[in-house]
Amino acid sequence: IIPSLLLLLLLIFLHLHSFSADVYYRYRMSRCIYSSSNISDMVYFDNYYFNKYLFIQFDSTLGRFVGFNEYGMKLAEFWNNDIAIFVGTFCPHNIGYDVALLDSVKPKVKLSSVSQAGGRHPAVLMCSAYEFYPPHIKVSWLRDGKLMTSEVTSTMEKADGDWYYQIHSELEYSPKSGEKISCMVEHASFSKPMIYDWDPSLPESERNKIAIGAFGLVLGIIISAAGLIYYKKKSTGRILVPQ
């Protein structure tokens, strides 16, 4: 049994070895190279390889195929007779999303008060920027218009997984009466640094409750007024019959 098994393994090895020696590898690689948002400087290369050897290439700067061996030159001559089917279709069809990302997207900025665990200062503010592109951004803190450099902790830009980014910066400080704390955000989508002032009058949750309550009050007044107007119009249309 053992000699038969060894013979079988030997035959399998020889078969695989002979098969791998006869394998041919051919592949194609297309590239669209550009740097402007309107792709006016786009260059298109369409390369065909056989066993790692480039045998034919389309170069958009030449506007035709070029062969690098006998087979490639014959193929290039044939393909160049109908070059229109190769030009102007691949890149515009495939780079639309990339070009869209060349446009900057303004960040959504939120200022909030957060709790801390055993910090040296009684107050901690967080300035968060969401859904912006490109990723490079600068978040700074201002106290009465002056840049604050100490007690500031910032995260790196984090990818959201949908081509957009977010960043968070925390400031530990001791509040003083009458001061103004601001978060300054600098990004390519802004023509100038944007400054967001912190309103310490009420916690965010309380401000939300007040806003909801005010909205409910206004809505109630509107409904009451509409009901009163309807009642008066209906009353004036009645005819009183004497008894």
Automatic annotation (TrEMBL):
Coiled coil: none annotated. The keyword Transcription regulation does not apply. Residues 1-21 form the signal peptide. It is a single-pass type I membrane protein. Keywords: Disulfide bond, Glycoprotein, Membrane, Signal, Transmembrane, Transmembrane helix. PROSITE patterns: IG_LIKE. It is found in: Membrane. It holds the Pfam family C1-set. The chain crosses the membrane at residues 210-231. The keyword NAD does not apply. PANTHER family: HLA CLASS II HISTOCOMPATIBILITY ANTIGEN, DRB1 BETA CHAIN (PTHR19944:SF99), MHC CLASS II-RELATED (PTHR19944). This is H-2 class II histocompatibility antigen, I-E beta chain-like.
